[in-house]
Structures are given as C-alpha cells and as structure tokens.
Amino acid sequence: MSGADLGLSFAPHSGLAPAEIGRLAAEAERAGFNDIFVAEGHGDALASCHPVITATERARVGTAVANAALRPPVLAAKTAALLDDVSGGRFRLGLGTANAFMNSRFGVGPSPSLQMMSEYVQVVRAVLAGSPDGFTGRLFQTGHVPLDRPPVRADLPILLAAIGPRMLALAGRIADGVILNLVSPRQAGRAVQAVRTAAASAGRDPAAVQIVCVVHCCPSDDAEAAAAAARAVVPRYVMHPALATPHGADLSKARALTASGDRAGAAEHVPQQVADAFVAHGDAGTCRARIAQYRDAGVDLPVLFPMPVAGDWTYERVIADLAPLSHR
Fold first, then answer.
1. Does 290 reside within a domain?
2. What share of the chain is helix, strand, coil (3-state, %, to 5)?
C-alpha cells in the first residue's frame, strides 16, 4: 500500500439500491480509490459487499464495520470466506460492536465487548484455518467447522473498530488493522500511538497493523451549507458514548431530541466545533487539507464517508473532486 491510498465508504442508510452502489463503486475504482467499504446501519453490511465486489476488479472491499453482535462468529467466517472467494482475494472483514442504544433496538443485550471481540476474532481465524479442534473460550465454543470450498486466504485480514484505549490495545495485539471513526486528527494521532505501542508490546511489527480512519465528508462550495450539513451528521452518532465533545461541548439537548426521533431538531443544538472535530466539510481544497491532517497524524488509509448536503448525498462529488491526486 502506498502513502496515497484512499478509501470510500457507502452508507446503506443513504437509500442507494444495490445496483447503484455497484455503479458508484466501479466509478470510484476508476477514479483511483484503492479501498471500498460498506457501513452497517439497519441493513446487512456483508451482503451489501456483493454488488461492490461484482462491479469492481482491483479495489479491496470490506466492511467498516459489520456489527459482530448481530451474527455468530462462525457465520461471519463463512460469509467472509465466500466474499473473499467471489472477489478473488480482495475482501477484508471489519468488525465492531455497536453502542448499547443501537443494539437494544435489535434485541441484542449487553456483552463484555472486549472479551467478545477477542474470542470472535479467534473463532473466525479457527474456521478459516480449518482448525480440527475448533475453538473453546468463555463466550464461544465450536467444533471443527468445514467449509464447502477451501478459503482463498486462511489469513484473510480482520480489522477491528476501536476508539477507547482498551479496544485500541486489543486491535494492536491481535488484528490486521484498526478502524477509527468519530475522531479528530489529534485524537487519531493518539489512537495511532496506542495501537503501535500495543503491537510492539505483543512482539508484533507495529507497522504491520494498518490504521484506517473513516472521515465523514460534506463537500460544497457553499461554506455555510457545508457547515450546516456537518452539524446534521452529529445526530446520527450523538448516542455513541465515544463521540468527540471538544471544549466540554454540551450535547444533552441534541441527545434528547435524537432519542425522541427528531434529528433535524437535534442538529440545531449541535455546537459547530463538535461537527468540525470529525467531519471534513467545505470545498475540495478544504476537504483535502483535512484528509492530509489525518495522514500527518499517522493514518495509513483515510476512508471518505460522503454525507448529504442540502438533502443530496454527495457520492458523485466526493468521487469526482476528492479522488487520489495521482489519478486526476
């Protein structure tokens, strides 16, 4: 991977049809995006990767992220193996745990996320490796899990979503990469250091753990419209306990309105500095400058996550205006 690698992420909640996701993915690949990810909202991120895989030829494809709480690890391993087969070895499995507010709506109870993610990764790897003994842990126990076809890669890359220090350390110890989200460049820099330190302490090459960071984007030549769009992004994540709250910003009103279903009203109570912390917004030059800040902080792969501006999802503009400079 080069220092100019750039990724693009699709949001299922944008309402894009699978065929349209495939078309845009192919357009992004032609524009020079090296990695294409699919987020998981209320749909199925793993299933949504299929139209991306079939529409592309070279780009790596992955989930950023699949909610591990919604599927047993054996099922995740089987699906990942199939997607890697279909893609010719281009798939990467990004895993995370949604916040308690989100999971409660899915009927998923609380779990010890650190232990769960540690064992989950071990189960997936045991399945892909064809371990005759399976896996025995505190939360998961399996026997030998045969696959219909040998996996393309027994060492299929597994990335972990992490923001807190303990999950960052776990990613550094066991994962092939970490996926950061909802962080400012400064916070990303601290996370990079935590991951690299944990990897080194575990006897791993710190550089072997790829640092991926999702960067929400609201591109527009109208600075005021872009800033308003950035504020509107925050209610989508305001219930997440790790959301950046710089300078002691008060998000209590925004959280209450979001919980009641009034996201538009919640956006009116979002301080601009909260949105500015993790959303790149403005014209192409301004957005590129923000992407550069993440690279300077140690991020290996910024992944642009287009958001709507004035009601219009901005995939086409992000692909056209923010593609890697080497392809422009």
1. yes
2. 50, 15, 35
Mean pLDDT, the chain, whole residue set: 93
Q: Does residue 237 sit within a domain?
A: no
* Domain hosting residue 18, numbered range: 7-224+278-327
Give 181's pLDDT tier (boundaries 50, 70, 90): very high
Residue 50 lies in a domain: yes
CATH number for the domain harbouring residue 30: 3.20.20.30
Q: No. of H helices and E strands in the chain?
A: 13, 14
In a domain, 287, yes or no: yes
H, E, C per residue of 244-270: CCHHHCCCHHHHHHHHCCCHHHHHCCC
Mean pLDDT over 13-34 rounds to 95
CB 210 within 8 A of CB 299: no
The predicted model scores a pTM of 0.95
Percent of the chain whose predicted confidence (pLDDT) is above 70: 92
What pLDDT score does 9 carry?
A: 98
Are 185 and 296 in contact by the 8 Å Cβ rule? The answer is yes
Number of domains, the chain = 1
